[in-house]
Structure formats: structure tokens, C-alpha cells
Amino acid sequence: MSSEEDTERSALRKVTIAVPYLPPLEEFIPFLEDIWQRKWLTNAGPYHERLEAALSEYLGVPHVSLFNNGEIALVVALRALELSGDVITTPFSFVGTSSALLWSGLRPVFADIDPVTLNLDPAATLSCLSPEVAAILPVHCYGRPADVHAFDALGKRHQIPIIYDGAHAFGVSVHGQSVFSFGDASIVSFHATKLFNTFEGGAVVSSTAEMKASVDRMRNFGIDDEVSASSVGINGKMSEISAAFGLLQLTHLSRNLSAREVIARIYDQELGLVAGIRSIGAIQGNYSYYAIMVEPHYPLSRDQLYESMKSVGILSRRYFFPLIADLKPYRGLPGASELPVARGAAGKILCLPIHANMTAADARYVSDHISSRGRNGSYRNNTNVSSL
Q1: How far is 70 from 257, CA to CA, in rounded Å?
Q2: Which of 11, 41, 307, 368 is the 20 to 30 Å CA partner of 205?
Q3: Residue 242: which H helix or E strand, with range?
Q4: Contact of 154 with 162, CB cutoff 8 Å
Q5: Interval 336-355: pLDDT, tens
């Protein structure tokens, strides 16, 4: 296909990496009218309490604490576990995973990832254990569950807590059991682009009622009542508007999931036979992301494919690149200079557009472009990548 044809096609179609799911506005207006009438905007109002209960039921876990975002949720969960020292974690994640550790006075120790799942490797984690390690923080990357049984066993054997960063993992289960029921605590993100969003928000899932009480207190400045505060806290509360929006979003979740599944299955079918493209398996997660690995025998490099797609209106993302361990604040931390599997993955990973606003034609447009470049590699031959 010529560059002139590509330009013409890009003028006709734009496919963005992610678009927030928004229910019909008219369905949200009654919630807003009720909030205006009550004049209760925050501090565990009725919608906040209803959403915690609804999420507890939907996710199949007893102790959910809502937060204003997933990062503060993780900071508070770490604080509630009274940790100090080192925490083994993955370098292949959003930077917020490790920044929460540093904000909490903890030192990230990077262990390598599994080459198939791209999640923290239990064997690599075991090799990083030392007397200074206070906890392990795996991530359910792209919504695919980490090896929860191996990590929970590791935590019990060495008597250290396991905290899961489940920012991507809303609604994911392992053999019918909620992924958030494992470990000592989990966090989840309700950011605008997530499968389930509350504009902005997050939650801590605690393993015990005592931990939930501690988390709830810390998210409200550590306050016990009008005249006492028994712990150091922060303002992590979710507003009534976000909570009400979450309740509405839950009623649309199956529709959102179904729309994403259609896109994922088209990618699976269309890209499954493209030499040099390996899908990371969105169907094993919750369709939050669709990631591919651009292998060396594909005619274009990952970055060339990324630029080629951009030139025809397809916005993908090299997620996660670079590794957290290669970012300035994290260089020199334990394990940061090693990580051959994670570093290799970071050079080949590409997340494709997937969201409920996409059409089947959009998905085929994306997969057709990847397929055609895989057959002829014309982008490498005809285009100067450095000039784009």
C-alpha cells in the first residue's frame, strides 16, 4: 500500500487507544439532582456507602474501602500494614506502583517478570528475598492475574505480607474466585480510562475487618471522632458525585465488557496468524487492555510499527516502556540494572486500541494494518522513521 493511500485512509478514520465509557447523560442527572438536594458532597455519604456495598457484592469480597484515586489507595494500604524496609515488586508496570513505595518510605527491589504472562516471576522474587524485605507487591498486568497461589504461599512461608496492585484487574477471577480475595490487601483503580470508572477513583480491598477499619480511618486524616485522631492519615475520600457515577456505571458494566470482548476476539482471530506478532491474551483478563509483542521476525520493529500505525490514525501505546527501573528516580535501586526479561518485553510491547466506543470495523482496520505491514514491511523500506 502506498503512502498516499495511507494518508487518504488516515483522513477517513481515527482509532484512539482508549475512550472513557460514559453512560447516557440523562441517566446520571437524577443522581446529581438528588446530591444537590441533599447537599452532602463527601465524607461517607449515602452514595459512597451504597457503592462500597455494591462493589463488595460484585467483586465477591467483604471489605472494600473507596478512595479518590488508586495511588492514594496504595499508599494507605502500605501504611495500614505498618511496613518498613524493602518491598519486592515488578519493573514492568505503571510508575505509580513504585512511586507509592517511595512516598511511603519503602525501597523498591526489582525482580524480573515471567516471559509469558509479563507478571512478576515468583522464582525471581524468591531469589531477591533478604531480611530487609518487608513485603511483596505483584501487579496483575493488563488485568491478567499474577500467580496468586505461588505468591500467597511465598508470603506465608516467609511471614511477609503480599499486596496486589490490581489497578487493571476489576472483576477478574482465578478459577471462579475473585483475584482481590488473595493476599493481605489489593488495590484497584477507577481512573477514567479503566474498565470501571468513577471519573477518578480507586479502592483498597482489605483481608480483614480490622484492616478495613484502619484503612477507613487513615483515608480520613486518621480521625477517630470529633476530638481524637489515633493514626497519621491523609485525605483519600471519594466524593458523592464519583460514588453515584460508580453506581450508574455498574448497571452498564456488562454492556461495556461485551463491547470490549468483541474487539479482543477480532484481534485474536485476525492477528493470530501474523508471523512475528504475539498476543498477550486479553481474554484471560477483563478486556481492559490488548497487548501484543512485536517479535524480531516481524518485518518492522516495534517502534516502526507504532509510527506506521500513528501515520494512518491508529493510536497505540508502548505500555510499559521504558521500565520503571530505567526512569531517573529508580535507577540504582536493587535489581534495576538486571531484568533481562522485563527489558526485552519493554522493547517489544505495544497496546492496541480497545474500548467500548470502538466498532468491529475499527478493530479490523487496526489488525489489517498490522497484517499488511507484516506481509510486505513496506514502512521500513519506504519511510524514514526518524522524520516522523
Answers
A1: 21
A2: 41
A3: helix 240-271
A4: yes
A5: 999 999 999 999 999 999 99
pLDDT per position as a tens digit, 308-345 = 999 999 999 999 999 999 999 999 999 999 999 999 99
Residues making up the chain, counted from first to last: 388
Cell 527501573, residue?
325
Q: How far apart are CA 214 and CA 221, in angstroms?
A: 11
Task: Name the 3-class secondary structure at 340.
Answer: helix
125 half-sphere exposure, CB direction, 13 A CA radius: 32
Beta carbons of 79 and 218 less than 8 angstroms apart:
yes
Rounded to whole angstroms, the Cα distance separating 260 from 363 reads 10
Instruction: Give me the helix-helix angle, 240-271 and 25-38, nearest 10°.
Output: 160
| Residues 113-155: tens digit of each pLDDT | 999 999 999 999 999 999 999 999 999 999 999 999 999 999 9
Helix (H) or strand (E) holding 36: helix 25-38
Residues 6+ apart with CB under 8 A from 331: 325
127 grid coordinates: 531469589
pTM as predicted:
0.92
Q: What is the DSSP letter of 348?
A: T
